[in-house]
Design a protein that fits this description.
Oligomer: single chain
Protein name: Probable cytosol aminopeptidase
Structural class: alpha/beta
Family: Belongs to the peptidase M17 family.
Pfam family, one: Peptidase_M17
Keywords: Aminopeptidase, Cytoplasm, Hydrolase, Manganese, Metal-binding, Protease
Radius of gyration: 24 Å
Cofactor: Mn(2+)
Helix content: 25-40%
CATH class of the largest domain: Alpha Beta
Length: 469
């Protein structure tokens, strides 16, 4: 699908459709559009679509009336319009009656909405339905190219995240995730390093290896680097993503119902890889590193057992009381590994706790960390792009729940405040830098008839990187 910006009046074509976007102050010159806008206002609606006859051919025509100009409201409206737009072949969007700020918001939100509407993961279906929509032309005199480029990058990153997340566990194995990430980075001109299990062992990343030891799929540490800052000495932002390509729970086995959805347990990794790709595609003037520890969590005669003690890369001994709390075990070694980059900030992303779903549902992702300025910057980015995020506290008192009789700490803190104690566990491995943790357990994928990866929080992460560039 292609997007373009036109300054001249768009001319109708045999296969084209027209979308007129108006606001309260608009005075349409197009007769039929003006009639439809009046009808919308009388009915207190915001979108209407019809067909007209133009030069002996039928043309689809739609009108949008923007009532609220905040980004969240525009985003909601564009999702409705995108459902209509995806059924067109060539769409001309007339934005000539909008002021600049509103035009910029519409171009960004509508481009993302259309990208989401046409997305389909059908590579394993014999009869796949091709996307009908080929091109969208925006007619406007305003400066919107930056917003269009950002929106296209967001869709690019979200589609990478979705494709990786939706792939079944027998396809998207740790090795597949590693090779896919490397190919994506190399194709964009960035660098990739795939660290194998032997090197992981030599570095003392035993927490990661303890999770991987129950599976024959092995463990990998993915390291992607992009140097876009004109100052080579600028400290990088480091993104860390949980890459459990299938999570059975290990010896602490999960219930069978909906266990197929545990292929989505690597959506933190997928979102980090997608964000990295989007940032490189935009050629952001920053230095960026992505780190992904990846393996499976499976039960076997070799699997880690409840009560086992493992020594993490930073020297702390961890008592594993629940093998289904494995995400924090692979992340803790990756977070220690991140120290070597002397980072400006480290942001980890993980489908970490079911407790986050209990707390926030499937609307907002949770955020915690050790640096309020970093958290505020991420919350600002979340608000700007409407990728809903909510801060939870991380008081030292929560660490009391992680005390072990036999090791430096244990990997679970009981039922109370499960999302917070998971972050408190990670905080033991992030003391040397500014760190934020995003728990996306409730937002990384949808269940039911619309089952599939959502691509979140790629919009939030890319918006944050743009604001930092």
């Amino acid at each position: 699908m292609e997007f373009s910006i036109k300054t001249e009046q768009l001319q109708p074509q045999n296969n084209s459709s027209l979308l007129f976007v108006y606001c309260k102050e608009s005075k349409p010159k197009h007769h039929i559009a003006n009639t439809l806008l009046t009808q919308l206002q009388q009915q207190q609606k915001d979108f209407i679509a019809t067909h007209t006859v133009k030069d002996e051919f039928l043309q689809a025509l739609a009108v949008v009336s923007i009532d609220k100009d905040d980004y969240a409201s525009i985003q909601k409206l564009t999702s409705t319009v995108a459902s209509w737009a995806k059924e067109q072949q060539l769409l001309n969007v007339d934005l000539s009656m909008l002021p600049q700020a509103l035009t910029q918001k519409w171009v960004q939100a509508f481009t993302i909405a259309v990208g989401e509407a046409v997305y389909c993961f059908d590579k394993f279906k014999k009869n796949s339905k091709p996307v009908l929509l080929e091109k969208i032309n925006y007619q406007t005199d305003h400066a919107v190219s930056t917003y269009l480029s950002k929106a296209e990058a967001i869709i690019y990153g979200m589609n990478i995240c979705k494709d990786l997340g939706n792939a079944p566990g027998n396809i998207c194995t740790p090795a597949y995730l590693a090779s896919s990430a490397a190919k994506i980075a190399n194709d964009l001109g960035a660098s990739a390093r795939i660290i194998n299990e032997t090197e992981i062992q030599e570095m003392g990343m035993n927490a990661l290896l303890s999770v991987a030891q129950g599976s024959s799929a092995g463990a990998y540490l993915i390291e992607l680097q992009y140097h876009g800052s004109p100052n080579t000495e600028d400290k990088p932002v480091v993104l860390v993503g949980k890459g459990i390509t299938f999570d059975s729970g290990g010896i602490s086995l999960k219930p069978g119902a909906a266990m197929d959805e545990m292929k989505f347990d690597m959506c933190g990794a997928a979102s980090v890889i997608g964000t990295f790709a989007a940032a490189v595609k935009l050629k952001l003037p920053i230095n960026l590193v992505a780190i992904v520890p990846t393996c499976e969590n499976m039960p076997s005669g070799n699997a880690v057992k409840p009560g086992d003690i493992v020594r993490a890369m930073n020297g702390l001994n961890i008592e594993v009381l629940n093998t289904d709390a494995e995400g924090r075990l692979i992340l803790c070694d990756a977070l220690t590994y991140a120290e070597r980059f002397q980072p400006k900030a480290v942001i980890d992303v993980a489908t970490l706790t079911g407790a986050c779903i209990i707390a926030l549902g499937h609307v907002a992702q949770g955020i915690l960390g050790n640096n309020q300025q970093l958290i505020d910057q991420l919350l600002q980015a979340a608000d700007s792009i409407n990728d809903k995020t909510w801060q939870l506290p991380l008081f030292d008192e929560y660490k009391e729940q992680l005390k072990s009789n036999f090791a430096d700490l244990q990997n679970i803190g009981g039922r109370p405040a499960g999302t917070i104690t998971a972050a408190a566990f990670l905080s033991y491995f992030t003391e040397s830098y500014c760190w934020a943790h995003l728990d996306i357990a409730g937002t990384a994928w949808q269940s039911g008839n619309n089952k599939g990866a959502t691509g979140r929080p790629v919009p939030l992460l890319l918006e944050y990187l743009i604001l930092q560039s």
